Amino acid sequence: MLIHPWDAPHDDAEWQHWLAEHDFGQLAVSGPPGEPPHVQPLHFAYDAGRAEVVTHLARPNPLWHALEANPDVLLSVVDDYVYVPGPWQAAPDGPPEHGVPTSFYAAVQLRCRAHVVDDPEEKADLLNRQVGHFQPEGGSARAAAHEAPYGRMLSGIRGLRLEVTGVRAKFKYAGHRTEEVQDRIAAGLAHRSGPGDAAAREHLLRRRGA
Predict the structure, then answer these.
(1) H or E stretch at 127
(2) Distance between CA atoms of residues 40 and 29, nearest Å
(3) Strand 45-47 and strand 38-43: pairing?
(4) Which helix (H) or strand (E) holds 73?
């Protein structure tokens, strides 16, 4: 992923805060020689304090064999993306039709070392951490090894703890454009008010004022 200086996060807190609210991504695991990588969509819980991600998958998932062969993986998360029409980006002294269309988006890529969790007690703890993240209000029984209602189901899954070893983050929101062009883009996003436009506009204005 190309990251220009103006698209880089201002600090670790910026991407960590964003990732805490964007907890669905794709896990890429190297495939066998001559084969493409395995790419698994999944929910996950990121723990900044422990520098790790926890998740789980069904035991029959073909990804496990690839993980055992090479535990170095990449978790990719992309959101807050929009299409920006060319005229919005046109230079102030040029014709609107000469503006270059582009995409805005936020992306975080976590390079990780995968650790498979098979111990029933550890799997139960991992599941409870995930549910605590997604369901802080409660409402579901806690998982416990050998206890109802979920204990007997633990054998059907394997836990996955991803130790974060590197981070690449990008916030592509016209950071290199003039204030006049940024204002035009922000106005266009507000007027269009389509899916993702409000979030993209917020990123543009927030990063300009940082």
Answers:
(1) helix 120-134
(2) 8
(3) unpaired
(4) strand 72-84
